[in-house]
Each structure stands twice: as C-alpha cells, then as structure tokens.
Amino acid sequence: MKGIYLRCENCRKFTSTEKKSARKGGHIYCLCGENLSRKRQVYYRLKSGFYRAESNSLNDAYEEYLNAKNYGNKTVSRKVRTGELLDSYLGKYRPSEKEQYRWELICTYFKNIPLSNITSFVIKDFCNVLKTPEKRKKLYSPEKYEELKKYGHLNKVPTDKSLRYYLVNLRKFFRWCTDNKYMKEIPFDGELNGMAKNKKTDFAPATINTEESLRLLKASEYSKNKELYLFLLISLATGLRKSNVTGMRVEWIDFDNNIIIVPHEHTKAKKEIRIPVSQLLINEIKEFTKENQINEGRLFETKDFRCSYANALKLAGLPHIRIHDLRHSV
C-alpha cells in the first residue's frame, strides 16, 4: 500500500509495504532479516515525516493516511473524543464568566462524542435537549442543579436568542477545529447557520431626542469616569460606532479643517470614514487633550464605558438605551 511503512523493532528502520524485494512468502522482512508482519508497527509517511497509525490493520492505517494527506497530519482519530479538543480550545480561549455556564453544558453533551461523528443532526439534538427541561437536567453539575432548583429555574425554557449564543460558541469552536485541520468543514447546515446569525432581540431599538441627550450629557458630568462626557458627545455628534469612538486616536482628528477621519482598517465596511464636525466639538476635544496632556495615540484610556454609561442613564432618568443606539439619535 502506498505511503504505508512497517518499522523494525531491532534496527528501527522503516520498510515500505510496496517494496517487492522485502516480500517473502506473504510476509514483509526488514533488511536485517526481521519479520515485520509478525510484530507490526504500522506508520504512514507525509512530507513532514513518519506518523504512527492508530491501528495495526493495514487497511485502517491506509484510510488514516489518506485523511491525514488530505487534511493535514493533525487529523483527529475516530477514537479521540471531542472533549479533549474542547479542553484545548477553552484552555487557549478562556471564556468569560457569562459564557462559562454555556460552555459547561456544551462540554457535558459533546465530550464523549467523536469529532468525526458530529453532524448538523447531532447539533440540532443538542438544541432540543436544551429546550427540554427533563433532558437538560442531565447536563448540569450537582452544584449547578441545586442552585437552579433553589431559584426555580430548572423548568425555564431558553429563548431563540439564548440558543443563538450556544450556536455561536459552537461555531467558533468548529472553526478552530477546521483552522487546525481537525475537521474539513463546520457541521452547520442552512438552518443552523440561520439560527446562529439571527440577531433579533427581545427589545426594539431605542432613540433619544435632543432634550434627553442634553440630560444624559449633564448626568455624565457627575460621573467618576471623567472621559464619559466627551465619549457621549462624540457618539451623539458623529454617529460613529462604539468601537470607533472608544478606539479613537488623536491622529484621526483634523483640528484645522474640523474633520474626523477614521482609517479604513478600523471600520466595519473597510472604507475610510470622513465626518465634518462642529467647532464646539473640536474645542471640547482640544480642551480634553490639553488637560490630560494627550498629544498622540488613543484619546480615551477607558476601553469599556458600559458601567459608567448605565449609571448616567439612571441619573438622567432615562430607560435602558444601548450605546449603539446613540448613533441613531439626535
């Protein structure tokens, strides 16, 4: 068989199963005279070297060789459980506390399933388990079970929005598997992709008017975060995305022509954004940079304004409005 080799225990040399001179009486012999067919050490050869096959069966080894040749030498054996890869993935990409709960259920369900056996049907069954309280109970740890029982959440059925978060996390894991040649493609069909991309929320996008904007700006002046006022002022005046305002750099601001220029590599559409702004906003930015001695680099040290923003909303007496909604407000 092409690509399949037997290794001698004595001289440690490899002998190809295709080598005719090594065949005698239906057996394969090493140059040192050792019968390799009796004590098989089956290997397959790739460009990067020799790899020990999972099975001593030549047919199984040949199938493993073809898979490794097509997808890379990191192809997962059918014997390897998905749990081992999940541990590797989560060890590298540590989930947040909010995501940890979802990953616990994902790991419990998928850990003993071979990666090669995971299909869209398996993933849909996982979604059905989440939707069925009686089946979902088996996925909880004893501590988590008692906690949910205490607060009466055992029979709570997840919404489509909640399921989307599970599918998004699963798709990230499978994408990591494909990037590392563990699998050929992500096992999502059209229905699962549609569920994972559905970003509908349970609340309608909100906007605020001019009077409410002024109240919010006034409340932000009392915030412990002294950067919040300018952050909100730029957000309301320019309509830029939260990430563009948070990551704004002094070099993006043309103080002479009253223009903010966001380079294409920092925009969602990968196109440069040029926004004319008022002299009032330019003066506020100049005063802020002067007080904080900022001559270049990032305009704000704060990377996440959500906490201080939520406090300002309460102080202004406004309902919950996402920071993202400010770009659609006056």
Automatic annotation (TrEMBL):
A GO MF term: DNA binding
GO annotation, biological process: DNA integration; DNA recombination
Alphabetic keyword roster: DNA integration, DNA recombination, DNA-binding
InterPro entries in UniProt: DNA_brk_join_enz (IPR011010), Integrase-like_cat_sf (IPR013762), Integrase_catalytic (IPR002104), Integrase_recombinase_N (IPR010998), Phage_Integrase (IPR050808)
Domain of life, per lineage: Bacteria
Residue span(s) of domain Tyr recombinase: 203-330
Entry similarity comment: Belongs to the 'phage' integrase family.
Protein name per the record: Site-specific integrase
Provenance organism: Flexistipes sinusarabici
